[in-house]
Amino acid sequence: MKLTVIALAAALSLLSTAAAPALAAPAATAKTETSATAVGQAVWDLAPLYASDAAWESERLAIQAELPKLKALQGKLGASAASLAEGLDAISSVRRRLGRLITYSSLKADENTQITANQARNQQALSAYNQFGEAVSFVNAEVAAMGPEKVQGFVAAEPRLARHKQGLTTILRLAKHTLSLKEEALMAGAAEALQQPQSIYGLLTNADLPWPSVKIGGKTVTLDQEQYVAFRADPDPKVREQVFKAFWPVYKAYERTLGAVYAASLRGNVFQARARGYASSVAMAQAGDNIPNAVYQTLVQEANAGLPTLHRYFKLRSQMLGLKSAGYQDVYVPLAKATRKYTLAEAEQLTLASLGPLGQDYTAKLAEAFKGGWMHSVPQRGKRSGAYMNPAAYDVHPYLLMSFNGEYNSVSTLAHEWGHAMHSVLSNAAQPFETADYSTFIAEIPSTANELFLVDYMVEKAATREEKIFALSQELENIRGTFFRQAMFAEFELKAHEAVEKGEPVTGESLSKIYLDLLKRYHGDAQGVVKIDDLYGIEWAYIPHFYNDFYVYQYATCVSAAAFFAEGIVKGDTALRDKFFAMLKAGSSADAYPLTRAAGLDLASPEPYRALMRRMNATMDKLEALNAGR
Asked: Is residue 299 within 8 Å of residue 609, measured between CB atoms?
């Protein structure tokens, strides 16, 4: 699973004017065959955003000067169709500029979380966004008060409102959860305070936790988050055990503090849900994109029904690794040794080759984008952990962050994040700013599809049995990490929010207990499949996505959808490929769930998840046959 954040874009949509922005892993040894070439850059170029910090500051002040003008629109939107169009256009224009402003500040802050000046600049940008939210907090209430008949009449009469139609439709749909003008202003004013748990968590875990130093292979290693990821897959079981025993006590030592931070985030979510009259926090999270609750419920049910398949995989791993008793520290070690490492340029070439089924036009655009300075991939001290794509600078291009270390997982992460970036490229080209954003419910489909294209390519091009075993095992690990692990996270989020909603005490210790119970069930601890030590219940504190509420379940739904698309497209189904691209180009011009149904699948039904289980079992059949022939 990639720590991917579609940064800021959802928060900058028309319908979340009072919301906080959402700021926030597989390789052939044969020559890559592709007509497109690219030489990637390892550090992004932020000059297309602003020429300097001073230029950024000038724009920040200019945006703030626009806010009183937006506030002055209050009470005027309903005067006429022209008034509504002019008002929404003015708000959209400032929001568009804010997206660019916050993109620059957040990227600079994430390059090195230890640089105070960059953190301060990012706080200024978020403050500007919150002030914007306060200034336009009247919009939803005012539009809702106009009623469907009047709004629909205005849309029919004024062509300029066409780009706002989907946003207006959603406001009307959510009218029963829209508060009075005064209450909406109060909610907007509370946004900055409600963001603080995520900000505190990010600084604590990325910059301030005291990472231990350990000796591995005769060298002293600072076991921070990036080094943990690197060494948890070490082929030596003693090293893996050493890494886990050194890394997780750091989080455990801060269990009370991290628990208090996350509990504050949970209580903020519950407060907002109750204030807006939602039955639950998850209902509020689903409402914006109009996603049926049946999707979340079906995912959890089918993930639990598929646990025998997951346990079969763990047992196969233990057999192939020669483990008499597997522990949690053994989950990440590859089943076959990678025969090489990759340079960034080689990873890009491999990605281009594997995405051939998507067509030459797609790969040519991607090859050109690789050269554009869109990505920061150099590992460095203080850099934000994980990986993400930020699409919020509509007038420039997407930006990507990851730490490329040459391992196969980094190649897969690169393919994943560029799947996001190309989604934004396609959507931006087809949609106006107002509908160029897209739901997370769709966002993870092209990114996880890229991973599947990559691993399918690896299997096809593997020159030896060992290479094929490596490729098949990576496909299984991809499904484990992106489907089962995210479904487990989804259950944890649901239980944690429900605890607050029921008035139960929520502490670091209670959160660890919830997580530990899930960790043991998913890994078959009671059945002797994988032994889970109690210490590892603290792992919830390692997952930054929990601060983007009810986000991670969409990895699991999306990988199921991605498997559907990848299977058909690889077989040459051009009609399905056309539907796939149509879905990506649609942006947010319609609700996400109907867009996926129009593309040919229903994620509220069991079938996509069961199809993924069939794929996983078929892959294990191949792997077992190869293993038997060793």
From this structure: yes
Q: Which CATH superfamily is domain 10-205 in?
A: Oligopeptidase f, N-terminal domain (1.20.140.70)
Q: Which of 558, 554, 506, 591 is nearest to 282 (CA)?
A: 554
Neighbours of 368 (CB within 10 A): 11
Helix (H, G, I), strand (E, B) or coil at 74: coil
Sheet containing 388-390: order of strands: 375-376, 399-401, 388-390
**How far apart are alpha carbons 541 and 254 in whole angstroms?**
9
Tell me the catalytic residues: 417
Record the pTM: 0.81
Q: Give every CB contact of residue 347 below 8 A, 6+ residues apart in sequence.
A: 40, 404, 410, 411, 414, 415
**Tokens 């929520």 map to which residue?**
506
Domain range annotation of the chain? 10-205, 235-378+410-628
Tell me: the pLDDT tens digits for 494-518? 999 999 999 999 999 999 999 999 9
Q: Provide DSSP, 557-610.
A: HHHHHHHHHHHHHHTT-HHHHHHHHHHHHTTTSS-HHHHHHHTT--TTSSHHHH
* Residues 6 or more apart in contact with residue 29 via CB below 8 angstroms: 339, 340, 463, 467
Low-confidence ranges of the chain (pLDDT < 70): 1-41, 629-630
User: Domain 235-378+410-628 carries which CATH code?
Assistant: 1.10.1370.20
